[in-house]
Amino acid sequence: MAKDTKDVTYKEQTIFPHIRNKIDIQGREVHVIARLEEPLIVVLGNVLSDEECDQLIDLSMDRLNRSKTGNKREVGDLRTSTSMFFHDGENKLVAKIEKRVSEIMGIPIEHGEGLQILNYKIGQEYKAHYDYFTSANRPVSNPRVSTLVMYLNDVEEGGETYFPKLNFSVSAKKGMAVYFEYFYDDHHLNELTLHGGAPIVKGDKWAATQWMRRKKHK
Ligand SMILES: O=C(O)CCC(=O)C(=O)O
Ligand SMILES: [Fe+2]
Predict the structure, then answer these.
(1) How confident is the model over 104-132, as pLDDT tens digits?
(2) Which of 17-26, 137-146, 202-211 has the lowest mean pLDDT?
(3) How far apart are CA 105 and CA 111, in angstroms?
(4) pLDDT at 66 over 80
(5) What region holds the Fe2OG dioxygenase domain (predicted)?
(6) Is the CB of 126 under 6 A from ligand 1?
(7) Ligand 1 pocket check for 161: Cβ under 6 Å
(8) Which of 6, 132, 172, 215 could form a disulfide with 151 if both were Cys (CB 3.0 to 4.6 A apart)?
(9) Cβ neighbours of residue 137 under 8 Å, at least 6 residues apart?
């Protein structure tokens, strides 16, 4: 018998649990607008209402500090935004959004690092980076596995979330979000999730980021 020479395309298991183009959560219909399969990058619509976006901005405005990066949480050129973290469930709105984010990402909120609000003014950016941690000599004990970046306003010009290794970018649009994950066995797929927040050219940018860990973080 002739041997079957068809290529077998093997796809890795993903974390994101939704296969349909709509996700029903808390009586709200979140839309899957676009989807890249490997690495999985999902553009989502109707994640937050306009009022929720405005309230998150109002609640964080007076609590912003220069954003930090890396294990040592340092301030530097890599990330020039200001930002803050809400405490877990610190008010009704944050609790409600945490629950929604957890359902979208398919991971309990206890694995999260807290909802983080970011503000970028003209010229400010988050240069291309990986959200996962790397350690040269020992495995990371509780690695980050996935990210959701939600946009809280429309940016007039600039401020896209860009993935330079994929020639792909997502414009910041109020209430929408981009999800991606980087817990693949094939490390090449994780490396393709290199991404950044492009410098703001006109206007400013407000976003909310949720980083999830493999295991409980708190
Ligand atoms: O601001 C963005 O578009 C990207 C933010 C980001 O990469 C992060 O918070 O890890
Ligand atoms: Fe990031």
Answers:
(1) 999 999 999 999 999 999 999 999 999 99
(2) 137-146
(3) 11
(4) yes
(5) 111-214
(6) yes
(7) yes
(8) 172
(9) none
Nearest CA to ligand 1 atom 8: 209
Q: What is the ipTM of this complex?
A: 0.99
For the chain, what is the radius of gyration of the CA atoms?
18
Residue with tokens 């709105």: 93
Q: Which string of b and e fits 64-87 if b means at least 16 CB within 10 Å?
A: eeebeeeeeeeeeebbbbbbbebe
Assigned token pair, 198: 């492009």
| Number of the ligand 1 atom closest to the C-alpha atom of 118 | 1
Query: DSSP strand E in the chain: where?
Result: 22-25, 28-36, 41-45, 65-66, 82-85, 116-120, 126-129, 144-151, 157-158, 161-163, 168-170, 177-181, 195-197, 200-202, 205-213
